Structure prediction request, 119 residues.
Amino acid sequence: MIFNEYEEFCKKMDECIEKYKGKFGCIVTFNGFVREYDLKDGEKVPSKGMKIDEDILEKLKLVIEEAKNKFDVIDILFYHNTGFLSIGERIASIAVFARHRKEGFEALEYIINEMKKYH
Prediction:
């Protein structure tokens, strides 16, 4: 499930914890923020922020479905901010509910790597 409002993501996290109680062994999470610099050719270059188009949300829905099909996980929640993001702003939050940490971490790594293709 994908969200473009962080508060909705947090609310759904709480709901899923109750819904899946006893079924999951871990929730593997990731939170990404805009850095004050970018790396270009190994050099630190000051950042002015980043712009994220709303069409990324549709692409990320597909990534989530792919991850659910590829890895043995219970559920995936994904928040992604859009518009112009300033330094320090949250870009994305991901929560993978899994029976075991191995599958949870593998699914999370896959999602992050796919997400980075669109940034």
Remarks:
- The first helix runs from residue 6 to 19.
- Helices lie at 6-19, 56-70, 101-116.
